[in-house]
Predict the structure.
Amino acid sequence: MYRNTKKKRISYEEAVAYLYSLQKYGIKFGLSKTSNLLKAFGNPHRGAAYLHIAGTNGKGSVAAMIESILMRSGFKVGFYCSPHLVRFTERFRVNGQEISPEHVADLVSEVKEHVDPVEPPTFFEFTTAMGLIYFAREKTDVSIMEVGMGGRLDATNVIRPKVCVITNISLDHQAFLGRRLSDIAGEKAGIIKRGVDLVTGATQPAILRFFEKVCEERGASLLRLGKDIRIRVKDSKLYYYGLDQCLRGLEVALFGRHQYRNAALALGVIEVLKRKGYRISERDMREGLKSPRWPGRLHTVSRNPLVVLDGAHNPAAMKSLMRSVTRDLNYDRLILVLGVMADKDIAGIIRTIVPAADFVICTRPEYYRAAPPETLMKAALPIWKEGEVSPTLSVALKRAIDKAGPNDLILVTGSLFTVGEAMACLDPDTYHPDKIR
């Protein structure tokens, strides 16, 4: 146990600065450091009820819809997500309320006392321990844990959940998870626990066969979207044919065609919970889908001109975004504001979205991982119609608004970091960021 002899209460700003200082240790897979921190607090995560959500895209949307339904049902619900958009406090919430800055400062002070200075945890390991301690103290009825990356060795995998979810499998984070879909599926399948149901929206036959094999080995039921759970969409309403229930004419508040599949996964998880004794009515399910809180995903911030923000950050997510934009939004010209992280598939993202844009502004958010705008421009030049480079996102947004006509669409995308900074620029009263980012 590593304990400081002198205790000093720190401010929220100092706490966040300390947390961000841990980013220099990068991304390291493993459960031991998170487990050791939790052990120092008496393993508060053991015996608690969790839902564990992995997948390449859609994790947060599925989690937000589950959270909304469970809250409607009267449960006290914890929600751990990453990354945050504008404030660190977004990462932990209970019944929709973000953790207070004072709670963050106190938790950082406490957990920091148990950090081994020789082998310190990463940012994500530390924050995961914070979240689990916070939810235990808040006595949540169920907490939703979103995987940071992969699953098998992700810090969140210290929990034993009631239900596991793998939303889908596509290429992302290949430098960490492997170059092939089968490698990525193997990492995400690491969240599957013995005897714990898995709900998945994966579609690739080889991946599904692999999940079936893992579930069989671990005595876990596999529930598939498209087989055990089916949907159809008519007149913008969702018709759900699930494990035990058929729900017709559901309204899904989160915008985008891909959200119908995410809603079906959320409802599948709810049905599994009902089988385990959770009391959740059809009305709760219907009303919950109408009111999830999940900004930054096909998020409209202005209508004259139309300004839409979306955190799509890999080719698969960008393809879903473009399907929704081109089919469901009406506009004359598409002005694209693009900021992407340097470790992403920049070429794949650009091939997917740039041909649809009438004008492209390549830029970057104020984040150390962001790709230089010139890198984006170099990749886009062979296929863009017209565009330019802007050194900062704030300048890029002003330029896009100046160029847009009343019937044009400004789409800001490429990363959640880009979207978060854009939200703070465009609506600073609502989305006031931390002073330290």
About this structure: The chain has a mean pLDDT of 93.
